[in-house]
Amino acid sequence: MSVDTRPQQISSFGRARRSFREWRWQRPFWGGLWTLLAGFPIMYIPYQTMTLGDLHIRMATTAGAGSLIIGVLLVVLGLTLWFQQQSRIFAGVAAILLALVSLVVSNFGAFLVGFLLALVGGALGVSWAPGRPAAAAAAARPQPEPAVSLSKDDNGATGATDGGHRAD
User: Fold this and answer.
1) Share of the chain residues as helix, strand and coil, in percent rounded to the nearest 5
2) Mind listing the pLDDT tens digit for each residue in 133-142?
3) How far is Cα 128 from Cα 36, in angstroms, rounded to an integer?
4) What end-to-end distance do the CA atoms of the chain give, in Å?
5) Residue 35 contacts residue 126 (beta carbons within 8 Å)
6) What interhelical angle do 88-105 and 64-83 show, nearest 10?
7) How far apart are CA 85 and CA 124, in angstroms?
8) Could you read off the pLDDT of 33-79 as tens digits, one per residue?
């Protein structure tokens, strides 16, 4: 017997962590997170006013509404990557296209921060593929062919055999 064969008691934190890990593995989690995070600087920075001493620098442009729309769409696409895995390719391509549009519309993609986050998040969303369970993956793996073995026959001679037939 081993030292401790009793099942370990799992705390509620451990159960929550394990269920979150299983939820995260079933979807393009990181692509969705990066796409979601890309929307916030694209929405926020064009409306921000910076103050340097008595100098007020307004970042708002005439395309401020476009920045808001692009940011909201990126947040929605990030949530789509999380909760609608079937449309991950559409959401990823749309996030990449919106990242490219944000370069022109929203202060160089919110100073390249939102642009890079959306580009990487969209690429991760497009490239993610659902995995197969371990049992299904093993069943789908092709079985190797039986190898030719060298064995001794009744007279002590060694010969290559395949399937019980002796090669003379």
Assistant:
1) 60, 10, 30
2) 666 666 667 7
3) 16
4) 53
5) no
6) 160
7) 12
8) 999 999 888 887 777 777 788 887 666 666 677 888 888 999 999 99
